[in-house]
Design a protein that fits this description.
Number of strands: 11
Number of helices: 1
CATH topology: Immunoglobulin-like
Largest sheet: 5 strands, antiparallel
Structural class: mainly beta
Number of domains: 1
Distance between the termini: 14 Å
CATH architecture: Sandwich
Strand content: 35-45%
Helix content: under 10%
Radius of gyration: 15 Å
Order of helices and strands: EEEEEEEEEHEE
Shape: globular
Length: 164
């Protein structure tokens, strides 16, 4: 099993994120895939992003275990999880931020094995696989504050890479 560097953060840390090795998964079968893994609740979750046909549409397969739900996946401008910057999408080709629609289902499933449906984003974020590579990818949970407002809480972050 390959060891993959992962940037991980939990509620008790100071905000600094260190690279820590965790077991990786087998290489993707599609050479046009990006990969990211996240650690939440002591479990590792995997995300594979495919760019079928025109290279811009995105299909995100994921492997999750006991996932909390009410979460979404997003790619950011930065490659640094300490300073994510804005969400990464091409406003010239994509009419609005596509990431809140990248909703992750609650529970446990491996979409590439037919357990649940992958996330499909027609037109993706307006960037190709190569333009998305090495950008920070994050998982957010939508939470309701005491005054009833919806807030996005960062659960974990890592960078996107290609497994050769």
């Amino acid at each position: 099993m390959k060891v993959v560097p992962v940037i991980s953060r939990n509620e008790s840390d100071s905000g600094d994120r260190d690279l820590i090795p965790i077991p990786g998964c087998s290489p993707p079968t599609d050479s046009f895939e990006l990969h990211a893994d996240f650690t939440l609740g002591g479990k590792t979750h995997f995300f594979h992003i495919h760019f079928p046909a025109n290279g811009f549409n995105m299909v995100i397969d994921y492997s999750i275990f006991n996932f909390p739900g009410n979460c979404f996946f997003a790619i950011h401008e930065s490659s640094n999880c300490n300073d994510l910057g804005d969400r990464y999408y091409n406003a010239k080709t994509v009419s609005e931020d596509p990431w809140p629609s990248a909703t992750i289902k609650k529970g446990s499933m491996i979409t590439s094995l037919g357990e649940g449906s992958p996330i499909t984003i027609p037109g993706g974020n307006g960037f190709t696989r190569d333009e998305n590579q090495n950008h920070a990818a994050a998982i957010y949970k939508k939470v309701t504050t005491t005054n009833g407002r919806i807030k996005e809480k960062l659960l974990d972050c890592n960078y996107l890479y290609i497994i050769a």
